[in-house]
Amino acid sequence: MRFTPLIGILIFISAAVAAPKPAADDKPGPPTRAELLKSQNNLKQIVLAIINSSDTNRGVMPSDIRSADGKALLSWRVAILPYIEEVELYKQFKMNEAWDSDSNKKLIEKMPKLYAPIRVKAKAGETFYQVFTGDQLLFGPKAVTKYPASITDGTSNTGLVFEAGDPVIWTKPADLVYDAKKDLPKLGGLFDGVCQVGLCDGSVMRIKKDSDMEQLRALITPRGGEILDLDKLRAK
Prior knowledge:
By secondary structure, the chain is α+β, with helices and mostly antiparallel strands.
């Protein structure tokens, strides 16, 4: 049987329409062990940098870099650069200027690999590694915190760095805002179903995204005095 040119064209068009979309358009499958471990290692290094910074500064934990009048200029992620072997990058920042000033804005693209997203797409210079800020927390405009003295709930019972639900520019003083009277911000933007948390003792815990809210709040607050049941949070 012979095909005419017109029939051949129609067959080609039909096949193209019926063809599956490229794999790049598909949603990623479950995270691999290697991907989870990579983010886990990132979290451990970030927490360790915070702890080392605290030790160097007589226990005072790092915070957003602020102006004389208290305005947040640069993120704590910039403040800990010397503790993640990024001293030269740290020296390039204008500490008395905002993250989006002409000088500092040029450094966004130089984000350390330690802060880079894993397996998900984000804009250049964005990170999912964030802390909770708010009253009575370890970070925030009114936080005067010493490590570990201020963490009365225990370092192994208090979350420090979280995989947030949405990314932020790494130099921008923007993180997860905590309000005891409002719903918690979305977590776990890197992996389906789970969120990894760097605890104040330097360990990393994998929690369920649908964790018990009261238990999750207990994990976030460093001195709330709650009874924390980690088994209600931990992902299998």
